[in-house]
Amino acid sequence: MERGKMAEAESLETAAEHERILREIESTDTACIGPTLRSVYDGEEHGRFMEKLETRIRNHDREIEKMCNFHYQGFVDSITELLKVRGEAQKLKNQVTDTNRKLQHEGKELVIAMEELKQCRLQQRNISATVDKLMLCLPVLEMYSKLRDQMKTKRHYPALKTLEHLEHTYLPQVSHYRFCKVMVDNIPKLREEIKDVSMSDLKDFLESIRKHSDKIGETAMKQAQQQRNLDNIVLQQPRIGSKRKSKKDTYIIFDTEIESTSPKSEQDSGILDVEDEEDDEEVPGAQDLVDFSPVYRCLHIYSVLGARETFENYYRKQRRKQARLVLQPPSNMHETLDGYRKYFNQIVGFFVVEDHILHTTQGLVNRAYIDELWEMALSKTIAALRTHSSYCSDPNLVLDLKNLIVLFADTLQVYGFPVNQLFDMLLEIRDQYSETLLKKWAGIFRNILDSDNYSPIPVTSEEVYKKVVGQFPFQDIELEKQSFPKKFPFSEFVPKVYNQIKEFIYACLKFSEDLHLSSTEVDDMIRKSTNLLLTRTLSNSLQNVIKRKNIGLTELVQIIINTTHLEKSCKYLEEFITNITNVLPETVHTTKLYGTTTFKDARHAAEEEIYTNLNQKIDQFLQLADYDWMTGDLGNKASDYLVDLIAFLRSTFAVFTHLPGKVAQTACMSACKHLATSLMQLLLEAEVRQLTLGALQQFNLDVRECEQFARSGPVPGFQEDTLQLAFIDLRQLLDLFIQWDWSTYLADYGQPNCKYLRVNPVTALTLLEKISREMKDTSRKNNMFAQFRKNERDKQKLIDTVAKQLRGLISSHHS
């Protein structure tokens, strides 16, 4: 039973497997059916599978038959249609055959044309190949043609670049052609030609900038001047938010395009043709005047050719030579400012070019090279300026030279060159400028003093009065109260000299501008120069006027008055200097003005000259004295010459009203003493060997006239009989002889309160001997003692006795 169930189960599994295989056969492609069939034969039930397969085939046949029966009528209709189509197909075949025959006949011409077309295609292919070859060679030829054009138009750097492209890019592509071999052989020659021509361009450029360096420098200095003026305007009128550009930023750097398409002629030589601009137009940049492309081209060419070092050495060597030429000043440079200006322009132009080369090329020049050149230029320039400026005698030229040097220094400082030594040298020129100013002002003072009338300034109106007061600081309440016309106490040279001193201070201040000095340094410089003006120049001018031979007492008196007022004005000069320098006089180390001393010395010299002049005038009057020392007549009035002398002294001392009292008193006392001494000398001179008592009486009248003048007080301020003491020696001597008071004299001699204390025994003896000689001269016919012989003898004995006693006094005094 169980075996039967097992067999049944196996039979079902086999049937299921066969069913699966059949489905797989039905659904699988014929090419892939092999593995399926193999699985059948691998099993043991292939007989049963065949039965199963037959059964499946019969089933499919029955299904096909059913389907055919269903579509049979359609099939019959299709066959009928097909038979009809066969007839039409035959007709079509006939038509195609006929058409083919006609086509073959007509196609013979086409075949011939196609052969011809084939030949054309072959030619076209050959032409195309030729064109391709030519297109490959054409760039080489074009580059070579471009190279020749660039050489012809002197665009050497682009030509060199073209040559490189031709050699390394184009020629290798067509190197198998013979013409390429010719080009390759010619390339070194072209390089050498480019090298030579570019060096020629550089030489022309160097020669041209040497000739035009003054124009370049002039433009740079104009720009510096404009910038400085602009800076001054900005400082005077500050604007909120305004930003000042540096001077160098205002310069437009010339932008040179190396690959320039425009040809540059050799004759341009690096200098552009720029006409002179008007002063009110904007000045072009200094570099705008120069075309640096020859330098750039030559530098790049030599760099490309591997000879950059050779080029740099040549350029620096040539520029050093040019620097030495530029720094050689012309021999007559000191004669005009234009000589200095041209010299500075050339130096500035040289260094502007070098600075531009430094900043626009890499390594052609370096900072060390520039500094070396500048050190050389600075030393030679300073030496030249020291030499040539020493010849300048015009202060205006020295001042203009200083301004030019400052502009020169400022211009170069813009380009980064150190200029401190130039400003140090300007301090040296400042001393020379002071000397030239002193010489100039010596002439000015001389002209002022020579042209002055030495009379008080008359004023007839308020306008004139204010004008004078405006020129010179003078205040006098009493003079202001007086009605017009009136006079200032001083003459015209006082305001003129005062204003010229101020002008001198202004001139000194002008030189100190832009020297970067502190206010204290400027103040010290002005004060020292002003002191030299006062103590040396003005003092010498005043002394020369005072010592002139034809100077009069009136002029001397006026000089004393003038110097007194100028002395008082010194404090205003101090204030004037303080105002313009803003340095207070109380500041430490501030130099004081020596004007007070100068005017005091001049006044003292004038006073001494007055004393001397008065004495000379007195001597001139005394030369007119004509005493008859042998006269016996007794006169009753003073001599005419003495009366005139006294009148002169009165008028002279009347002019002394404006003098300081001490000066007038000293002058008056000096004159009286000199008059008394001269009269004494006149009385005792050796040529007068004899004199009479009558002549002595006349001489006494003259002395009395002098004493009367002294008592009249010609100059106020003397105490009682002080002035009369000048004549005391004469008075006592004359009283002794006229009163014949020898007993008193001899008795009281040597006592402090004696009557004839001022009479010297020697003087008395000299005068007594003259009288004695006259009395002994018996040959004189009109002798007043001739009728009284006895009295004469008695008096002669008395004279001899007195003379003997006087000699005894003299001997005892000497012993």
TrEMBL record:
<feature type="domain" description="Exocyst complex component EXOC6/Sec15 N-terminal">
    <location>
        <begin position="52"/>
        <end position="221"/>
    </location>
</feature>
<dbReference type="InterPro" id="IPR048359">
    <property type="entry name" value="EXOC6_Sec15_N"/>
</dbReference>
<comment type="function">
    <text>Component of the exocyst complex involved in the docking of exocytic vesicles with fusion sites on the plasma membrane.</text>
</comment>
<dbReference type="InterPro" id="IPR046361">
    <property type="entry name" value="EXOC6/Sec15_C"/>
</dbReference>
<dbReference type="Pfam" id="PF20651">
    <property type="entry name" value="EXOC6_Sec15_N"/>
</dbReference>
<dbReference type="GO" id="GO:0090522">
    <property type="term" value="P:vesicle tethering involved in exocytosis"/>
</dbReference>
<dbReference type="GO" id="GO:0005886">
    <property type="term" value="C:plasma membrane"/>
</dbReference>
<keyword id="KW-0813">Transport</keyword>
<dbReference type="GO" id="GO:0000145">
    <property type="term" value="C:exocyst"/>
</dbReference>
<dbReference type="InterPro" id="IPR042045">
    <property type="entry name" value="EXOC6/Sec15_C_dom1"/>
</dbReference>
<dbReference type="GO" id="GO:0006886">
    <property type="term" value="P:intracellular protein transport"/>
</dbReference>
<dbReference type="Pfam" id="PF04091">
    <property type="entry name" value="Sec15_C"/>
</dbReference>
<protein>
    <recommendedName>
        <fullName>Exocyst complex component</fullName>
    </recommendedName>
</protein>
<dbReference type="InterPro" id="IPR007225">
    <property type="entry name" value="EXOC6/Sec15"/>
</dbReference>
<dbReference type="GO" id="GO:0006893">
    <property type="term" value="P:Golgi to plasma membrane transport"/>
</dbReference>
<feature type="domain" description="Exocyst complex subunit EXOC6/Sec15 C-terminal">
    <location>
        <begin position="421"/>
        <end position="770"/>
    </location>
</feature>
<keyword id="KW-0268">Exocytosis</keyword>
<feature type="coiled-coil region">
    <location>
        <begin position="82"/>
        <end position="109"/>
    </location>
</feature>
<feature type="region of interest" description="Disordered">
    <location>
        <begin position="260"/>
        <end position="280"/>
    </location>
</feature>
<dbReference type="InterPro" id="IPR042044">
    <property type="entry name" value="EXOC6PINT-1/Sec15/Tip20_C_dom2"/>
</dbReference>
<comment type="similarity">
    <text>Belongs to the SEC15 family.</text>
</comment>
<keyword id="KW-0175">Coiled coil</keyword>
